[in-house]
Amino acid sequence: MDAMEFFQRSAGKWRSQRSTHHLAFRRAELGELEITVSALTPDDPRVQEICTMHEVDGQLAAGGALVQWHGTMGWDREGEGHEDSTVMVIVPDVDNPRKGKLLREKGYAEIVPVAGQYEMDDEDGLNLITEYETMSAIERFSFADDSDSIRLRTSTVKRFGGFNTASFCIETRIDSPAETNATALPEALKASWEKESAVSLLGW
Fold it and tell me: Which residues are in coiled coils (predicted)?
C-alpha cells in the first residue's frame, strides 16, 4: 500500500478519542474530535494550488486529501473549540512511491504552509515527519483491522524550550450503517485507550 491508497482508505467520517500528554507538566488532557477525510485526485485544483504554493511541479503529485475537523479538548476555556481544515498533497519519490514529500496548506503544530516527509513502514503504517521553525512533529497512522473501521494515531511534538507533548488517538469510523454507535470500541482497544489515558506514552 502506498500513501495515496492510505488516504483513499481513510476517506469518510471519523470520531477521534484523544489523550494528549503534556510532558513538562506531567499531566494528560482528554478530548474528542469529529474528522472528515476526502481523497483528492492529482488534477484537483486544490492539489495543484498546494503544489504551486510550494513551487513543486503539479504533475509529480499522486493526489491528496482534504481533512476537516471539529471538537473539544479537556483544557479548553468556556466557549473555545477546535474547528479547521487543511489540504495535504502526496509527492512520491520517483524510485519509491512508498515515501516522499507531504505538502500541507497548514501544519499540525504551526498554522503555516509546510513541507514534510512521509514513509510507509513495513506494517503499512503512514509515518509523517515535519520540521517547523520552532518545533518538530512525528506522527504515525495505521488501521487496526482489515475493515478500515478503526485507525490508530500516535504523535510526538518537540518544541524548542522543552515543552513536549505526546498523543494517542483511537479513531472510529462513523459514516457507515454498521457503525451507528460511535463509542462501540473493541474491548482490547478500549482497554488500551483507558490505559493510555492514565499513563503517558513514556511510562509515568
Answer: none
pTM above 0.90, yes or no: no
Q: Are 87 and 104 in contact (CB under 8 A)?
A: yes
Any domain includes 203: no
Residue 204 lies in a domain: no
Question: Which residues 6+ apart lie within 8 Å of 116 measured at CB?
Answer: 101, 102, 104, 128, 129, 130, 131, 137
How would you write the pLDDT of the chain (204 residues) with one tens digit per residue? 999 999 999 999 999 998 887 766 677 778 888 999 999 999 999 999 999 999 999 999 999 999 998 876 554 555 555 677 889 999 999 999 999 999 998 765 556 788 999 999 999 999 999 988 888 899 999 999 888 999 999 999 888 776 788 899 999 999 753 443 334 444 444 444 444 433 333 323
